[in-house]
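Q: Given only this backbone (384 positions), what sequence would you predict?
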């Protein structure tokens, strides 16, 4: 007999549909759109898709991370799945074979966080015991394993058991501990590691001595973080004003962006950044090609500018040159669309310079764009 927990397995879906007993229960669907190269959408082909398309059947999908033609998803039971381009073993399945639909990474069911490298083929995961694991490309020591040897399956970074979050940039990595410490490693051009040097590191080093870091994000050559007091900080390469500090001066240690204390989330893409405040407004800065700042123009900005006037935003996530954002369960997109990654079903090549809503019939709960792809999880309340 199917269980009535509110989430369907594929077997339960078939049983429930046959019995006609599923009305009103929650269906958990993973959707993808955009660049299909190397099977990066997980749709079992290599075709670009310009509107949200379901990956497989309904299942217990919980978290998603998109990268450079690769993606990972964690199910509610803690199992980890991967698909797409497998350069340097970045899928973690002990091979370099490309996979165009989800395949489980190992057999463990204790994964809690996953990060697919957007710019390079380095991947990371956190387990529910607080350990941090890495695999894929390691040419600059960005795996944090104290060497430059690539790995095709997960390897533990050190012995710490208090990791909570990990983010990757261009050949470098940031991570947070559960006690608010910030660590960095990998390539250190422009001072992107924030340790007041430009020397590469192949194992985690703490950025300063503070223990009040709450949120992190990496651009191609710059880093961003929010502290528990709501202040926003940046460091690294400042081209196109991406640091948000009203100039283009590189810095190798954290510098505060403005003086406000109401920032709640920051997310960086390719030479641009978006951030969410506690008042429900969203802001952007940096390079503005393809209208990726969402400001209805193509002007670069070196300090935060508000996108529209809405105070209903609840979550944001930047991709390569596009952004996904939520207003509760409504999904909005803007930016570059050369592979259909906006999901507007308007074909490829038609970019959008201000937020537009897509797929309004679905109840979106989780979003995470990749470099030229987009992923989202929908929790649809309607039954069969």
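A: Predicted residues:
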């Amino acid at each position: 007999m199917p269980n009535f927990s509110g989430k369907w397995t594929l077997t339960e879906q078939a049983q429930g549909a046959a019995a006609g007993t599923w009305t009103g229960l929650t269906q958990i669907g993973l959707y993808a759109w955009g660049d299909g190269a190397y099977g990066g959408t997980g749709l079992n082909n290599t075709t670009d898709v310009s509107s949200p398309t379901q990956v497989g059947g309904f299942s217990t999908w919980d978290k998603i991370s998109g990268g450079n033609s690769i993606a990972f998803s964690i199910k509610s039971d803690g199992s980890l799945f991967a698909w797409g381009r497998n350069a340097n073993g970045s899928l973690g399945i002990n091979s370099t074979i490309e996979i165009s639909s989800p395949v489980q990474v190992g057999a463990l069911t204790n994964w809690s966080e996953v990060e697919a490298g957007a710019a390079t083929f380095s991947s990371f995961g956190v387990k529910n015991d607080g350990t941090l694991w890495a695999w894929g490309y390691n040419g600059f020591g960005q795996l944090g394993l104290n060497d430059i040897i690539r790995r095709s399956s997960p390897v533990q970074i050190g012995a710490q058991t208090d990791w909570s979050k990990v983010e990757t940039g261009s050949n470098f990595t940031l991570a947070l501990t559960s006690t608010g410490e910030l660590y960095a490693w990998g390539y250190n051009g422009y001072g992107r590691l924030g340790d007041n040097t430009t020397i590469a590191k192949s194992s985690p080093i703490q950025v300063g001595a503070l223990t009040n870091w709450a949120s992190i994000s990496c651009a191609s050559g710059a880093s961003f973080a929010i502290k528990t007091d709501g202040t926003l900080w940046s460091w690294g390469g400042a081209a196109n004003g991406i640091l948000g500090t009203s100039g283009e001066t590189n810095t190798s240690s954290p510098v505060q962006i403005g003086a406000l204390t109401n920032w709640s989330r920051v997310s960086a893409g390719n030479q641009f950044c978006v951030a969410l405040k506690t008042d429900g407004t969203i802001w952007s800065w940096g390079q503005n090609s393809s209208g990726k700042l969402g400001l209805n123009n193509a002007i670069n900005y070196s300090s935060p500018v508000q996108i529209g006037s809405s105070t209903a935003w609840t979550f944001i996530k930047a991709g390569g040159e596009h952004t996904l954002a939520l207003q509760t369960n409504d999904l909005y997109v803007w930016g570059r669309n050369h592979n259909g990654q906006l999901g507007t079903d308007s074909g490829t090549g038609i970019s959008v310079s201000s937020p537009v809503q897509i797929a309004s019939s679905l109840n979106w709960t989780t979003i995470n764009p990749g470099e030229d792809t987009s992923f989202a999880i929908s929790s649809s309340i309607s039954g069969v």
